[in-house]
């Protein structure tokens, strides 16, 4: 298949009670899909076509407000104060749906390595291989340890990872802990795993968190 030919269809669905502003960050040298961001109302569904060999990540921004020029801010997942992220990533903490497609297989995962902001799930269709659905449906903000909470008007908007908060080698898998045999689950990462067993919780989490599929399209659901 030729580069540039639409190979994968991502369908983004908002099942939250409020608006979500999906952010999309492409991998290095990959196409910037839908200019990297848009508004998605409750129960709204939008399809995004990705070219052959695309890679990148999706996340949900919450509590956003933008003016007519597309400038503004989001309470969580903000990508530099603009509606269209245009290649920029979201500010942690944000629940991530990560993909590499047609390489030659598709690889995908849900990552909470930097923390959690909104429930997210991935459901493949039409592919071959393992092709299983992944879900982080629990609202981790409701049971987030106080030391990891990010508050707005006394409401927990994000649950950051221990690495983001404490920035120590044992939580970030750096320095002497920069190898799987040394960097192990912690009480904090175990809370994430209990709530969302399908998700990556730290840098060297179980490799079964990555799913391999071939030739599928993907439904990404928020809440």
UniProtKB/TrEMBL annotation:
Q: List the disulfide bonds.
A: 16-223, 64-74, 79-85, 131-213, 136-196, 144-159, 163-172, 173-183
Q: Which UniProt keywords apply?
A: Disulfide bond
Sorted alphabetically, which SUPFAM superfamilies does this protein's record hold?
A: Osmotin, thaumatin-like protein
**Which superkingdom does the taxonomy of this entry point to?**
Eukaryota
InterPro entries associated with the record: Osmotin/thaumatin-like_sf (IPR037176), Thaumatin (IPR001938), Thaumatin_CS (IPR017949)
- Which family does the UniProt entry place this protein in? Belongs to the thaumatin family.
The identity of this protein, by name, is: Thaumatin-like protein
Give the organism's phylogenetic lineage. Answer: Eukaryota, Viridiplantae, Streptophyta, Embryophyta, Tracheophyta
